[in-house]
Amino acid sequence: MVSYKEIQASNALINDATAPRVAVFVGGTSGIGKLTIRALVATGATVRIYLVGRKSAEERTHAFIQELHAINPKAEVIWTEGEVALLAETKRVCEVIKSKESRVDLLFLTAGYAPFGTRRETTEGLEVAQSLSYYSRMLFILHLLPLLGAAEAPRVVSVLGGGMERASSINLGDLDLKKPGNFGGITAQTQNIALNTTTLEKLANDNPNVTFIHSWPGWVNTGNVRRGSPGLIMAWFIRLILDPLVRLLSLSDEESGQRHLFQCTSAAFGGRGVQWKGKPGINSLEKPADGLFLINFRCNCTPNAKVMPLLREKALGKVWDHTQEVLRPYL
């Protein structure tokens, strides 16, 4: 485990020379994204942050932006409206960013929720939670890869469930879980986790100049378990059992934000970033080199050595072909 004191010591070294100069946060209006933005701004570094969120979050987010400016006047936080469950909207937001920037140092992806309810589809025919947790995230990466490639120490962080993949967790015959009986809260979540890791590893292999992280945040009281229109029984279960359990076991907001900031900036993962004198992280190929890092809430690398070879052998080709087919109209 990387101790909290080590995390704080590393983050204290973040300055204008080591901070991500241009960062894009998708899902930063609440939860882990918001906590990480606050931690980044509080370093006092000169940063420009594109905070992407839905129209319904605009008013409270402007209040948050004013709070951030008071903490650090050198930080520029740009509200960028977009309903990113829709891939057409994701493309539009990316085009806006690309028209303004020549580089992106950090892409931080947290949009999504636990899909405990029934299957709901966007107007583009994708299940809402899967579009947020997987398709939209991969589309952001693919659009912004040229800008990431122009940065000195570019990093992509997708927060979902890195290291929690299971060999049986991916349904290759129904990747969108559209067939009757295939969609369920746990099934969908584990499918989305495996899809993220499989595609992120391919992107990491194809883009060795970019560090990729799939993070499992552990228990953080973000309110995500209450989203997704659960049925009556599940709603009561969440309210009476799951919510209190999350509150009991969660990391504090402060620690969660600091630990994710560490993942965004430390050279522990791949050697680029804030100097790290501790043990180097091990990537998903079980090597102390750059690539994809599966990181848990204690900032330990969890390569999931028994499952990853199976995903590479059996899933990678089908998942990549399917993903390209879905995203192609929006590239």
From TrEMBL:
Entries under InterPro entries matching the protein: NAD(P)-bd_dom_sf, SDR_fam, Sec_Metab_Biosynth_Oxidored
Gene3D superfamilies noted in UniProt: NAD(P)-binding Rossmann-like Domain (3.40.50.720)
Pfam families the record matches: adh_short
Source organism superkingdom: Eukaryota
Keywords on record: Oxidoreductase
SUPFAM superfamilies: NAD(P)-binding Rossmann-fold domains
Gene Ontology terms for molecular function: oxidoreductase activity
Protein name (database record): NAD(P)-binding protein
